[in-house]
């Protein structure tokens, strides 16, 4: 578990791991980035309360480096990736281990079940689980079990991670996409199953959501540059929408009819938010179009403006030797 400024959810996330309905041994290794909140203090309390929890330092604060450090410090043949704001369902680990055996997969994963705690977060959660928001990604919208390009978080065979050199530390974001692509190129199977569920807490503000999705877009473009054939039309839709809307707005200076493009997009997300908002409060429903536009435009802008200097090295870095736990 790589963590940075996760005081809000860390204790609950770890509690969901320790309460797993799993008959075998398990350990929780938390890679501590340089947090500016109470994350380190909470982690120290967790290690004092349960011997199965320990920490390793992650001075860079970057997710792939933290993951590699935690993996290197762990000792079991199955590696479960967890985030500091993700809550595993009660039988997540037991189900994942069973699926690894049944399918022969190198990595299995399930649904990123976004759940909010206020009107804005409920709106973002609805947008993240709607096809109009994220396309046909099974780990967002659900679907039948089967082979997948990538999955949320992941439960891995350690031998596969060691053979491939772990996470590529150059990929500050999109490290999951990049690793799963290498797994598939190596002949391994990445398997999605709706039986696996992780509750996820969305970003708490428009600004935070925009930053998250801009980074998703810019780093997904990096993956596309370095791994030819890893892109598909779903990933090109947001940048195409940004370009079309920009062209429509600029063209309106000379020809007003070009406003039909941004107008059509606005109408589309408003109409699409209606089924996505079923069962939510009025306050959450009216925020869904804003959440959708933030996700689409930020992802597309990030993809279009992704600097070529990002992740110049393609090879994965071997997981470092274990650091002493604190």
TrEMBL record:
Q: Which GO terms describe its molecular function?
A: transferase activity
Q: Which InterPro entries match?
A: Glyco_trans_2-like, Glycosyltransf_2, Nucleotide-diphossugar_trans
Q: Which residues form the Glycosyltransferase 2-like domain?
A: 1-123
Q: Which domain of life is it from?
A: Bacteria
**Which Pfam families is this protein grouped with?**
Glycos_transf_2
- What keywords sit in the KW lines? Transferase
Q: Which PANTHER family does the record match to this protein? A: GLYCOSYLTRANSFERASE, GLYCOSYLTRANSFERASE 2-LIKE DOMAIN-CONTAINING PROTEIN
Q: Give the protein name, as stated in the record.
A: Glycosyltransferase family 2 protein
The scientific name of the source species is Streptomyces sedi
Biological classification of the source: Bacteria, Bacillati, Actinomycetota, Actinomycetes, Kitasatosporales
């Amino acid at each position: 578990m790589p963590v940075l400024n996760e005081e809000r959810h860390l204790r609950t996330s770890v509690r969901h791991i320790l309460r797993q309905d799993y008959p075998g041994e398990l350990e929780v290794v938390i890679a501590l980035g340089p947090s500016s909140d109470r994350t380190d203090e909470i982690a120290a309390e967790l290690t004092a309360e349960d011997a199965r929890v320990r920490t390793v330092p992650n001075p860079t604060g970057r997710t792939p480096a933290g993951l590699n450090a935690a993996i290197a410090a762990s000792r079991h043949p199955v590696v479960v990736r967890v985030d500091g704001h993700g809550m595993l369902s009660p039988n997540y680990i037991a189900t994942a281990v069973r699926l690894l055996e049944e399918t022969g997969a190198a990595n299995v994963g399930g649904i990123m079940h976004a759940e909010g705690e206020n009107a804005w977060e409920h709106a973002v959660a609805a947008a993240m689980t709607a096809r109009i928001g994220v396309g046909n990604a099974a780990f967002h919208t659900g679907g039948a079990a089967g082979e997948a390009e990538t999955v949320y978080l992941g439960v891995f065979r350690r031998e596969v991670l060691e053979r491939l050199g772990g996470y590529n530390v150059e990929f500050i974001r999109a490290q999951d996409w990049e690793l799963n692509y290498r797994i598939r190129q190596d002949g391994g199977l990445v398997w999605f199953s709706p039986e696996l569920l992780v509750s996820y807490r969305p970003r708490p503000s428009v600004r935070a959501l925009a930053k998250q999705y801009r980074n998703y877009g810019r780093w997904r473009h990096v993956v596309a540059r370095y791994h030819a054939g890893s892109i598909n039309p779903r990933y090109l839709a947001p940048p195409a929408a940004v370009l079309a809307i920009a062209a429509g707005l600029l063209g309106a200076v000379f020809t007003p009819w070009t406003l039909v493009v941004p107008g059509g997009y606005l109408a589309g997300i408003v109409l699409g938010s209606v089924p996505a908002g079923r069962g939510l409060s009025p306050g959450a429903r009216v925020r869904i179009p804003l959440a959708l536009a933030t996700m689409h435009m930020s992802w597309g802008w990030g993809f279009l403006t992704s600097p070529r200097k990002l992740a110049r090295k393609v090879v994965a870095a071997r997981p470092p030797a274990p650091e002493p736990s604190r």
